[in-house]
Amino acid sequence: MKFHEMEGREVEKALNTDFTAGLSDKDAKERIKKQGYNELAEGEKQSAILLFFSQFKDFMVLVLLAATFISGLLGEYIDAIAIIAIVIINGFLGFFQERKAEKSLQALKELSAPQVQVLRDGKWVKIPSKEVVVGDVLKFASGDRIGADVRLIEVSSLEIEESALTGESVPVQKSFGQLKDQNSSIGDLENMAFMGTMVTRGSGIGVVVATGMKTAMGQIADLLQKAESMTTPLQRRLEQLGKILITAALFLTALVVAVGVIQGHDLYTMFLAGVSLAVAAIPEGLPAIVTVALSLGVQRMIKKKAIVRKLPAVETLGCASVICSDKTGTMTQNKMTVTHLWSGGTTYRVDGVGYVPQGHFYRNDQKVDVKQNKSLQQMLMFGMLCNHSDISQKQNEYVIDGDPTEGALLVAAMKAGYTREKIFNQFEMVKEFPFDSTRKMMSVIVKDSNGKQFVVTKGAPDVLVGLSESILWDGKRQYMSRELRDEVQNAINGLASNALRTIAIGFREVPTSQILLDEREAEKELTFIGLQGMIDPPRPEVKKAVKECKEAGIKTVMITGDHVITAKAIAKQLGILTNNSKVLDGKTLEELSIEELEDVVEDVSVFARVSPEHKLKIVKALQNRGHIVAMTGDGVNDAPAIKAADIGVAMGITGTDVAKEASALVLLDDNFATIKSAIQEGRNIYENIRKFIRYLLASNVGEILVMLFAMLLALPLPLVPIQILWVNLVTDGLPAMALGLDQPEEDVMKRKPRNPKEGVFARGLGWKVVSRGFLIGLVTLFAFMISYGQHPDHLAYAQTVAFATLVMAQLIHVFDCRSEVSVLSRNPFGNKYLVWAVLSSLLLMFVVIYYPPIQPIFHTVSIAAKDWIMITALSAVPTFLLAGSFFARKSK
Asked: What is the pLDDT of residues 819-837, one digit of tens each?
């Protein structure tokens, strides 16, 4: 039922309650039995054991387990234990991440008031909010949290902060009359109050119309439960890679066994050879290295003011093609600031940042001395006088205590040099008429040091103009003629068109003997001083961040609960709204199906006056168009969309716990510009992952081919299984991990986002893996054949030469993997971690070859110094042969 459209008596009758006495305890208990408790229901929880075992369904984990089985068959139990340890650690990481996600609903439940004041049997009593039922009459005042959705029946200067639901930064002024607009969004329902929102001013009484999951908050909780978490591109790519590797391993194993048996080798020997190839085909360390690379990315992100809650989040953000961002607090400062003044036909500009009480006043870019302008002095001074807010400094940041609008007026006056102490030394407060949403004004009566008495009024400009009979013009009081009224109205319209919220200031002098009993007597025959225009301004650094995102091929979309005019003005300032982009409001969006929205969503840059359902709808439409969507936000209303998006980004300072728990990334500084850093880091992480996949697989292809070619040529095995395992875990592992620390290439933020359907081997990676792997295998086999020809009776010597050639070829090749272009296009010493990793691998190789106690384990022998000339020369061929051919083509 649309209770906001009903009169009070209709509501009372529809809910079968009594506004004067409330419900009886007996009636309330009966309603609890029918309606249930006023609390948010939780979905079915998976047991901790099942949640833990579900972590082992991933295909890449199955690859690891297969590798473990193979290593066990070869008798390499230490290797098998190491792999199982990696699997279990990965399982625990996933388990704890999912357990954290379950806190989302708990954080949402904590927004409900623990106790509320309710009218029962004609008496006001405090009860737990869970026992509130539909029909209960609630009372609330400043500082209280609303315990259920209520239809207001009585208000006194009531203002409620609803940003968690609507995204609007300014508290909403409430009334209790019926509303006629049938298409009103939550932000427009002035005669309603909603569960979880906070009373910032005044008091009110309302009747409960919805509890639990039927409240606006409950609907968000339901969306949060139903929103599906997306698998990340990295998870999809690794699953794809795992399938390819398993298929290749099985095929090669069968091929080698078949070829060997045909050539006369016994089945057992060939089976072990085939298993060796399978071990070579599967890079056991790949998932572990991916996890380490992402973890290191997480550490770098913390230094850049971002906390990653889920490891793949950095990589996913790096391929985002659309960022859906809330406006309030994310792109703006969430600090109402006076930016323009109008008085006597002149518009003045005020600079400064947020609530910092420092700034200057300008007229046509010329600095103005307020002390020389009586009208400005009075307007700023009276704006501070007719004001309940206060300002304090906490941890080098200025904080407003009170209404944000009044805080803006206070800061504007302080920029002109006024302080509360100075004002109250000059004026004595006589009486106050509080703000009322019906009058849309607030007034105070004061006496100055000369004993003169004034009424000072601030409020809605259109109302104040109607009550003014004169105006300050050129520092003098003049009769408010029709022409001057038109001038004022034009000024109001001009400020409003720039999305400025306007407050008018007026006054009148009254005899000290006159006692004004009510506001109607006080607020008349006023002298209109001027207008103060304020806005929640954009963060200074966001415009640059939006521009850099655009250069990177990433579209920024503003999604806000604010009015269309405000959203358009901020979006234009930030460069989000261009001539070719559109603005869509909540009402229009409501009428569109998902399919219809998909047709227009590419052209829309601003969505205004939207609800939580709308945000989720927008994210889904963009995803259906093939976009990787990042959703940033801070309110409860953002949580379902944050969870459904490919990556959710929450604000760390102003963000609700619900938004943080639903997110994958939390910005410590609530700064949209930090997202740009995250994108750069994400892109670099993915490129680094491609680098070590390229390195590992090219190395493994080389190992496979040297074994396969030897079989086909009826040669002895050039490598024994333990040597292949050593190369996989030591020579491959250390440099691959160092590649994960590589610095980004210069043009990483000039590239378009990669296609979300792009496979691991896209952009020529597959060719690079096969071509380099082929050459690595070829030179290793060539070194083996030369050495075996020289020492036909000493197979271990030839195998050691092949082992050394394979290791050296891979360690030279790792420098080629740092660039998509060529080994010669980047400074080889630019990654100091890689240099140390290569040196460490070389040292370990020499230990394996020349340290007698270890030689029997790895079937190696000491080789002559002259052989190292051949080994080094052959090892350099795979990298520098292709690098030379690339530059030869480029020079032509």
From this structure: 877 777 778 788 898 999 9
Per DSSP (E only), the strands in 97-148 are 115-120, 123-128, 137-141
pLDDT (0 to 100) of residue 891? 43
pLDDT on residue 469: 94
Residue type, 583: V
Active site residues: 326
Separation of alpha carbons 561 and 586, rounded Å: 9
Query: CB-based contacts of 569: which residues, under 8 Å, 6+ apart?
Result: 498, 499, 535
Nearest-angstrom CA–CA distance, 297 and 300: 5
Predicted confidence (pLDDT) per residue in 845-889, tens digit:
999 999 999 888 788 999 999 999 999 999 999 888 765 544 444
Select from 841, 499, 783, 636 the least CA-distant residue to 167: 636
pTM of the model: 0.64
Let me know: does 423 contact 409? Beta carbons within 8 Å: no
Integer Cα distance of 517 and 524 in angstroms? 13
Tell me the C-alpha distance between 175 and 394, whole Å: 34
Query: Which residue, among 778, 775, 779, has the nearest Cα to 767 in the 3D structure?
Result: 775
Percent of the chain with pLDDT over 90: 34
Nearest Cα residue to 567 out of 167, 174, 197, 188: 167
Where b means 16+ CB within 10 Å and e means fewer, 385-401 reads: bbbebebeeeeeebebe
227: left (phi over 0), alpha (psi -120 to 50) or beta: beta
Half-sphere exposure of 89 (CA within 13 A, CB side): 12
What is the C-alpha separation between 278 and 272, in angstroms, rounded?
Answer: 10
**Contact criterion met (CB below 8 Å) for 117 and 125:** yes
